[in-house]
Amino acid sequence: MALKQRLLERKAVIGIIGLGYVGLPMAVTLAQKGYSVIGIDINSERVDSLKRGHSYIIDVPDDEIESLIDKNLRVDTGYNGIGAADVILICVPTPLTAYKEPEVSYIINAMDNIMIYLTPQTLIILESTTYPGTTEELMTERIEKEKGWRVGEDFYICYSPERVDPGNTSFHVINTPKVVGGETAVCLELGEILYSSFLEQVMCVSSTKIAEMSKLLENTFRFINIAMMNEMAMMCERMEIDIWEVIKGAATKPFGFMPFYPGPGIGGHCIPLDPMYLSWQGKKYDYFNRFIELAADINSNMPRYVVQQIERLLNSKKKCIKGSKIMILGMAYKKDIDDLRESPALEIYELLLKKGAELSFYDAYVNYFKKNSELIYSSPLTADTLKTMDLTVIVTAHSNLDYEWIEKYSQLIYDTRDAMSQIESQKVFKLGQNVE
Ligand SMILES: NC(=O)c1ccc[n+]([C@@H]2O[C@H](COP(=O)([O-])OP(=O)(O)OC[C@H]3O[C@@H](n4cnc5c(N)ncnc54)[C@H](O)[C@@H]3O)[C@@H](O)[C@H]2O)c1
Prior knowledge:
Low-confidence stretches: none
Number of helices: 14
CATH superfamily of the largest domain: NAD(P)-binding Rossmann-like Domain
Order of helices and strands: HEHEHHEEHEHEEHEHHHHEHEEEHEHEE
Largest sheet: 8 strands, mixed
CATH topology of the largest domain: Rossmann fold
Bound molecules: nicotinamide-adenine-dinucleotide
């Protein structure tokens, strides 16, 4: 088969649809491995930035883009070039609607465009996270119906979830094992050849549905365990037991326990969303996943819990939240990255603002965020600013912050991440601790 040969010889042209946190590192890795890559993104600012040699993704340095652009890596906003691709990887967003239901319109839109240029004998792989059955319904069935081709003979379809963890310095595209499922045995064989040519470990599963479900299971596992720790933290607050030390103790068990941590809420494009895809799909089968719904309830209430604790803490110091000067440290949804998507800090900011707090924030990774049409900028972090604050709230514990210095100049601190664990101080109150 010509495609198999082209894959074995690394002569296949790879098209990547969506050049975000998932698609760009994948495009760069494939181009570095010698593949000819065509990257397509409808966001013209992103495409222009890449053409100028600038990366907008924290894990992809500018020099990597500079060395590849217009050589092994070409980028465009239009799909014209996709007809030349032997393999197409779809890495578009899969958010939720306002009612927390799957929003797969980005996949449908990518497919609308691919269908215009698709040639026979192409392998298409969906990498976006989604509910089991998406690949079959939105891709395989559509191509068979509209083109009259047969999967496994005239075209090939796989699903392979992406596990990239932005900001993770140990695990990146190449050394993170990749699960792949195909619509037929031939599809799977081609998918395996592709990924094995540049990744250290590929795990083949027997269908696209298994691969789709395995990604949702991974993130639902995390979602539920975080919720359990959030609940434990709230319980420990009443019992006056330090949850953070409890976890440290339990985590010394070398088997059967994996530490998860409480926090101000969950964020990013994966953990808060993916379990809702599964819960939604379960309902189609009259299955109501109580674990997911309960965890969603606990996790989504954490920003409110944090604000309540802040209110109580200020009250205990004879201050009211209205008019109090509060500085939020860290707006990104997790440490050492610049991603604001679903960040609990945004909700905490909004809730504190509604209660009349005088707010500012500092985040070395996030210069500004958008609130309606207004741009709210990061303030400078100086000793003088901290001294004037009634309260400093650590929402995201970036590693570049000097917490001893912050403790020195702050009047009062609410720490939602146990960032101050090594510092003995009467000024510091942490999530899960009685603040009164
Ligand atoms: N961000 C993560 O850490 C992560 C990790 C694993 C899996 N995922 C999954 O990967 C998928 C992509 O996530 P992401 O974080 O890379 O999203 P992203 O928003 O960073 O990037 C997606 C890109 O797709 C582009 N796009 C949207 N519609 C398009 C279309 N029709 N044609 C071409 N380009 C289009 C957008 O402009 C954007 O640049 C999602 O399903 C997500 O759940 C994300």
